[in-house]
Amino acid sequence: MAWMILLAAGLFEIGWAVGLKYTNGFSRLVPTMLTVGSMVVSLGLLGLALKTLPLGTAYAVWTGVGTVGTALLGIVLFHEQADAGRLACIALIVVGIAGLKILSPQ
Fold this sequence. Notes:
By secondary structure, the chain is mainly α. It has helices spanning 2-23, 29-49, 55-78, 84-103. The chain has one domain.
């Protein structure tokens, strides 16, 4: 269950990272409120997952999920570069996340 909570925390991290782009420097009320809400939920879920998961593993997976999701949404939503090198680097992060999950004692 802790891994599912951690995954949800990572998804909310993607939400707030992408949301920052839409706040326009925190000058737009609704995107700002949604972004701050996503931050609170993400950190709250991370805290719950840390009750049973090792800190280093959980934090690395949380940031990895956020990084991969944000990079992919940057490509899709904001037309950021999607060349083979960049996609290979994203794939390496996914491999690292999977490795941490597989090697975790939990």
